[in-house]
Design a protein that fits this description.
The protein is an all-alpha fold. It has eight helices and no strands. The chain is rod-shaped and about 95 Å long.
Length: 189
Amino acid sequence: MPKMNVEKKEKKAEKRKKLKQRVAQKGELESDTEPKKKKQNLQVTKEEEELTAEERRKLERKLKKERKKKEKQLMREAGISTKKVEPKKQSGSELALAYLTRWSENPEEWKFQKTRQTWLLLHMYDKEKVPDKYFTILLDYLQGLQGGARDITVQKAEAFMKEFDGSDAEDPNLLEKCERIRQVLQLLS
């Protein structure tokens, strides 16, 4: 009895090998002419009928994977890029400035976003991150600032003013920053 099981397994393995070789040869002929993107319809032969559904599925997956690998290699050799180009993600500054613009130009579609507001409040004194064009809009935005965000913004602005009053630097960036801090304090106090 065990001998028959071994013989059956050997026969199945041999049939699988033959089937793989035949399908591989068929795949090579087709890939040489032109790589096909559509799923290939394999003809069912007597040998394939003897394979179980799961074995057939495994074999098809394996062959598909090999075909794709060959196609990629051919594309690479031809100099065609196979990498997918992902769209560039916007930076935090771009998103925050777009949020501010949306607030001013289209208030019906504007929606509050805590992360954007936080970014704006952290970087509002930096002229490079928030240009003058946007700072005037930001001042209008700050008029509607409420609660803890308003209190913390005033406290930070006062702390910055005390820090800058102690130093007598003539740095133009520092003077611009001080001017922005004064404008925020006048608006919120």
